[in-house]
Please model this.
Amino acid sequence: MKNPFENSSIRYAVVIQNILFGILGLSLGILPILGLMVDPLEFGQVVWIFWVLIWLVSFCVISYIQFWWFFSYKAQLIYTDNVHQMLLRAAVWSSMLIYLGVLLQTSQFNLLNILVLLLLSAFYAMYSGKS
Model:
Protein backbone atom coordinates (compact mmCIF):
# COMPACT_ATOMS: atom_id res chain seq x y z
CA MET A 1 0.00 0.00 0.00
CA LYS A 2 1.32 3.40 -0.95
CA ASN A 3 1.85 6.07 1.68
CA PRO A 4 -0.71 8.86 1.03
CA PHE A 5 1.53 11.48 2.66
CA GLU A 6 4.54 10.91 0.39
CA ASN A 7 3.15 12.93 -2.46
CA SER A 8 2.05 15.85 -0.29
CA SER A 9 5.36 15.93 1.61
CA ILE A 10 7.28 15.98 -1.67
CA ARG A 11 5.09 18.85 -2.85
CA TYR A 12 5.72 20.65 0.44
CA ALA A 13 9.50 20.21 0.07
CA VAL A 14 9.36 21.55 -3.49
CA VAL A 15 7.30 24.57 -2.39
CA ILE A 16 9.83 25.30 0.38
CA GLN A 17 12.65 25.01 -2.17
CA ASN A 18 10.87 27.46 -4.47
CA ILE A 19 10.38 29.93 -1.61
CA LEU A 20 14.05 29.58 -0.66
CA PHE A 21 15.03 30.16 -4.29
CA GLY A 22 12.96 33.36 -4.38
CA ILE A 23 14.47 34.61 -1.12
CA LEU A 24 17.97 33.78 -2.35
CA GLY A 25 17.43 35.62 -5.63
CA LEU A 26 15.94 38.64 -3.91
CA SER A 27 18.76 38.78 -1.34
CA LEU A 28 21.47 38.42 -3.96
CA GLY A 29 19.76 41.13 -6.02
CA ILE A 30 19.60 43.57 -3.11
CA LEU A 31 23.22 43.05 -1.95
CA PRO A 32 24.90 44.83 -4.91
CA ILE A 33 22.34 47.63 -4.79
CA LEU A 34 23.03 48.05 -1.10
CA GLY A 35 26.76 48.11 -1.68
CA LEU A 36 26.66 50.58 -4.56
CA MET A 37 23.84 52.95 -3.69
CA VAL A 38 24.00 53.46 0.07
CA ASP A 39 26.81 55.14 1.99
CA PRO A 40 27.42 53.17 5.23
CA LEU A 41 28.96 56.22 6.93
CA GLU A 42 25.79 58.22 6.41
CA PHE A 43 23.27 55.51 7.23
CA GLY A 44 24.28 53.31 10.18
CA GLN A 45 21.39 50.87 9.66
CA VAL A 46 22.98 49.62 6.44
CA VAL A 47 25.27 47.34 8.43
CA TRP A 48 22.28 45.58 10.01
CA ILE A 49 20.57 45.21 6.64
CA PHE A 50 23.80 43.81 5.20
CA TRP A 51 24.08 41.20 7.99
CA VAL A 52 20.42 40.21 7.57
CA LEU A 53 20.93 39.74 3.84
CA ILE A 54 24.08 37.69 4.43
CA TRP A 55 22.13 35.59 6.95
CA LEU A 56 19.36 35.01 4.39
CA VAL A 57 21.86 34.02 1.69
CA SER A 58 23.69 31.59 3.97
CA PHE A 59 20.36 30.20 5.25
CA CYS A 60 19.18 29.50 1.71
CA VAL A 61 22.51 28.02 0.60
CA ILE A 62 22.76 25.72 3.64
CA SER A 63 19.14 24.65 3.11
CA TYR A 64 19.79 23.88 -0.55
CA ILE A 65 22.85 21.83 0.37
CA GLN A 66 20.72 19.82 2.78
CA PHE A 67 17.97 19.30 0.20
CA TRP A 68 20.58 18.16 -2.30
CA TRP A 69 22.07 15.79 0.28
CA PHE A 70 18.75 14.10 0.99
CA PHE A 71 17.26 14.08 -2.50
CA SER A 72 20.30 13.46 -4.70
CA TYR A 73 23.04 11.91 -2.61
CA LYS A 74 21.03 9.76 -0.19
CA ALA A 75 18.13 9.38 -2.64
CA GLN A 76 15.48 9.21 0.05
CA LEU A 77 12.18 10.91 0.55
CA ILE A 78 11.89 13.50 3.25
CA TYR A 79 8.76 14.25 5.17
CA THR A 80 7.45 17.52 6.55
CA ASP A 81 9.15 17.14 9.94
CA ASN A 82 12.46 16.48 8.17
CA VAL A 83 11.99 19.68 6.15
CA HIS A 84 11.37 21.63 9.35
CA GLN A 85 14.46 20.10 10.97
CA MET A 86 16.51 21.04 7.92
CA LEU A 87 15.28 24.63 8.05
CA LEU A 88 16.01 24.88 11.77
CA ARG A 89 19.48 23.42 11.24
CA ALA A 90 20.15 25.92 8.45
CA ALA A 91 18.96 28.81 10.63
CA VAL A 92 21.24 27.79 13.50
CA TRP A 93 24.34 27.27 11.34
CA SER A 94 23.81 30.49 9.40
CA SER A 95 23.40 32.34 12.71
CA MET A 96 26.71 30.91 13.86
CA LEU A 97 28.31 32.07 10.61
CA ILE A 98 26.96 35.57 11.20
CA TYR A 99 28.31 35.45 14.77
CA LEU A 100 31.70 34.47 13.36
CA GLY A 101 31.51 37.26 10.77
CA VAL A 102 30.65 39.88 13.38
CA LEU A 103 33.53 38.69 15.55
CA LEU A 104 35.93 38.96 12.63
CA GLN A 105 34.58 42.37 11.60
CA THR A 106 34.91 43.85 15.09
CA SER A 107 38.34 42.26 15.78
CA GLN A 108 36.89 40.29 18.69
CA PHE A 109 37.89 36.90 17.31
CA ASN A 110 40.03 35.49 20.13
CA LEU A 111 40.46 32.23 21.99
CA LEU A 112 37.52 32.82 24.33
CA ASN A 113 35.13 33.52 21.46
CA ILE A 114 36.42 30.49 19.55
CA LEU A 115 35.61 28.42 22.64
CA VAL A 116 32.11 29.94 22.82
CA LEU A 117 31.53 29.15 19.14
CA LEU A 118 32.72 25.56 19.59
CA LEU A 119 30.54 25.13 22.69
CA LEU A 120 27.51 26.50 20.84
CA SER A 121 28.18 24.06 18.01
CA ALA A 122 28.61 21.15 20.41
CA PHE A 123 25.49 21.98 22.40
CA TYR A 124 23.43 22.31 19.24
CA ALA A 125 24.76 19.00 17.93
CA MET A 126 23.85 17.32 21.22
CA TYR A 127 20.44 18.99 21.34
CA SER A 128 19.53 18.11 17.79
CA GLY A 129 20.77 14.54 18.15
CA LYS A 130 23.30 14.92 15.33
CA SER A 131 26.80 14.22 16.51
Remarks:
- The mean pLDDT is 84.
